[in-house]
UniProtKB/TrEMBL annotation:
Signal peptide: 1-26
Transmembrane intervals: none
Record keyword Transport present: yes
Family note: Belongs to the outer membrane porin (Opr) (TC 1.B.25) family.
Family annotation (Gene3D superfamilies): Porin
Gene Ontology CC, one term: membrane
InterPro entries attached to this UniProt entry: OM_porin_bac, Porin_dom_sf
Organism superkingdom: Bacteria
GO molecular function, one term: porin activity
Organism ancestry: Bacteria, Pseudomonadati, Pseudomonadota, Gammaproteobacteria, Pseudomonadales
Protein name: Outer membrane porin, OprD family
Length: 446
C-alpha cells in the first residue's frame, strides 16, 4: 500500500498542492509560524560480553570465529521538520524527517554479526553508512482531532514505535488522535509496513519472538485513555494483527498521597487470542502487571509484579514497543507462563543541587518459564522454544542519565548503564553483560 519513494514523493506533492490552494496566514499560529526544524544527533555505543558458554559468531577471512565480545558504535542524525497547520476550520500540515547513520566501529571481528544494533550485510561486513526517509506524513486537524497519513510514529499499549537504538522505527499507514473531550484521548490506527530501527527501506509486519517466517498484512487498533479530575488513569484498547492475533488491553492507575509519600499504582492486563487464518498458530494467552512506586522527596522505589498465563511468548509487532507491562529492561520477562518480580531504586539529584541528573539501580527475577505444553498446531510459531521447562533468569542493572537544563544545549543528554543478565540453559536471552552509552544532542534550526 505504501512504499518509501511513493510515500515521500506523494506526500511532498500533496503538500505542494495544499499550499497552492490554502492560504498561509501571517498570524500568531499557522503553517509557517508553528513550524520547527531540528537536527537531532545520537551517538549509540554498546559493548556486549558473553558469559559462561555464550559466544558471538564473527565472520572473518579465515571463516567463522567464536568471540566473547561484540561492539556496536554508530552515529545517527535526524533532521526533523514539523509544520504547523494552515488557518481555517480544517488545518493542513506536514511532517518530514530524514534519517542517517554512520558506523564508527566497522571491524567484522568486533561487530560479530551486528545483532540488531548495527547494520551488516549477509557476509558480516558492516554497512558504513545509510540514509532513509524516516517520517513523511500529511496531517489534517479539525478542532483537537488530528489525522496523519503516511510514514510516522505512534504510541499506544497495543501498537507503538521502538526507539531503543541509534534511530527510531516508523510505520507506514494512517492514524487518528483526538483530544476534543477534556481528559479523554482517543487513538486509532492502521499500518501495513515497518521501517526498521537499523536499516533503510521497509519490511513486512512480523511478530518479534518467532524464528519462523510469519508475516501479516496489517495491524489495526483503536482505544482511549482517560484521566479523571480525581486523578484516576484508565485505558482500554482493541487491536487486530491480521491473521495472527486479536488483542485487548485494560489499564488502571492512580497516584496517591499519604503524608510526605506519594505512591503511583498501575495495573495492566492483556488478553490475546489467535484469529483469522492463524498464520502463527493457535494462541490463547493473558498477561498481567502490577507496579507500585512510592516516592519520598527525591527517592523512588518501584516494585513490579508480572505474570504471563499461556504457553506462548507475550509477543508484539516487530520494531514496535507495544508492551505496557512493568518488568521491562534488558529482558522483557515475557516468556511462556513466566512470573517475574522487580525492585528498582531511582534517585533525582536535583535535590542535591544537580538538576537533570538521575540514577537507577534495579534487580529483576523471572521464573517458571514453561513451554513444554505448547501446542500451536501446524502453524505454531513458538515450537522452537518447547524445550523451555521451568527456566529462569535475572538481571542486575544500573543506569545514570544527565540532561542539560538550560542554555544553547538545553535538551542534550548523556545516558550510560551496565546490565548483568544470567539465565538457565534454554532461556532466550542467555548469559550476557552489556554496557551502553548514548549521547543525544539536538540543534534547533527553526
Amino acid at each position: 500500500m505504501y512504499r518509501t519513494l511513493k510515500l515521500a514523493i506523494g506526500s511532498i506533492g500533496t503538500l505542494a498542492a495544499v499550499i497552492s490552494v490554502c492560504p498561509v496566514y501571517a498570524q500568531d499560529h499557522g503553517f509557517v509560524e508553528d513550524s520547527t526544524l531540528t537536527l537531532n544527533t545520537r551517538q549509540w555505543y554498546s559493548h556486549e560480553i558473553g558469559s559462561k558458554a555464550v559466544r558471538f559468531r564473527a565472520q572473518t577471512s579465515e571463516g567463522p570465529r567464536a568471540v566473547r565480545d561484540r561492539t556496536a558504535w554508530v552515529q545517527g542524525a535526524k533532521l526533523d521538520y514539523l509544520s504547523g497547520f494552515t488557518q481555517g476550520a480544517l488545518g493542513v500540515g506536514f511532517d518530514f524527517s530524514v534519517y542517517s547513520a554512520v558506523a564508527l566501529e566497522r571491524s567484522k571481528l568486533a561487530t560479530a554479526g551486528g545483532s540488531n544494533r548495527i547494520l551488516v550485510d549477509k557476509d558480516g561486513n558492516v554497512v558504513d553508512d545509510w540514509s532513509k526517509v524516516g517520517v513523511a506524513a500529511l496531517k489534517l486537524k479539525l478542532a483537537e482531532t488530528t489525522l496523519k497519513v503516511g510514514r510516522h510514529q505512534m504510541k499506544s499499549p497495543v501498537m507503538s514505535y521502538a526507539d531503543t537504538r541509534t534511530l527510531p522505527a516508523s510505520f507506514d499507514g494512517i492514524s487518528l488522535e483526538s483530544h476534543d473531550i477534556e481528559g479523554l484521548t482517543i487513538k486509532s490506527g492502521y499500518f501495513d509496513k515497518a521501517s526498521p530501527r537499523t536499516g533503510a527501506g521497509t519490511q513486512d509486519l512480523t511478530p518479534t519472538y518467532t524464528l519462523k517466517p510469519v508475516t501479516s498484512d496489517f495491524i489495526a487498533y483503536g482505544g482511549a485513555d482517560y484521566v479523571s479530575k480525581s486523578g484516576w488513569r484508565s485505558s482500554a484498547y482493541l487491536s487486530r494483527f491480521e491473521d495472527i492475533w486479536d488483542r485487548e488491553y485494560l489499564g488502571l492507575g492512580k497516584k496517591c498521597q499519604w503524608g510526605p509519600i506519594s505512591t503511583d499504582v498501575q495495573l495492566d492486563a492483556y488478553n490475546t487470542q489467535s484469529s483469522g487464518a492463524e498464520k502463527g498458530g493457535y494462541i490463547d494467552q493473558q498477561a498481567y502487571g502490577l507496579s507500585v512506586a512510592p516516592t519520598w522527596k527525591n527517592h523512588t522505589l518501584k516494585l513490579g509484579l508480572q505474570k504471563i498465563d499461556g504457553d506462548e511468548f507475550f509477543d508484539f509487532v516487530g520494531e514496535s514497543n507495544a508492551i505496557n507491562l512493568p518488568n521491562i529492561a534488558l529482558s522483557n520477562y515475557n516468556g511462556p507462563n513466566e512470573k517475574s518480580f522487580q525492585v528498582n531504586y531511582m534517585n533525582d539529584f536535583a535535590a542535591y543541587g544537580l538538576p537533570g541528573l538521575r540514577t537507577s539501580v534495579w534487580y529483576i527475577k523471572g521464573w517458571g518459564i514453561d513451554a513444554i505444553h505448547y501446542n500451536g498446531g501446524p502453524n505454531g510459531m513458538y515450537s522452537t522454544f518447547k524445550n523451555q521447562d521451568d527456566e529462569n533468569h535475572y538481571e542486575v542493572g544500573t543506569l545514570a542519565s544527565y540532561a542539560v537544563q538550560s542554555g544553547d544545549f538545553k535538551g542534550a543528554s548523556v545516558t550510560g548503564g551496565y546490565v548483568w543478565h544470567r539465565s538457565s540453559q534454554f532461556q532466550l536471552e542467555n548469559n550476557i553483560e552489556e554496557f551502553r552509552l548514548i549521547i543525544n544532542v539536538p540543534f534547533k534550526i527553526l
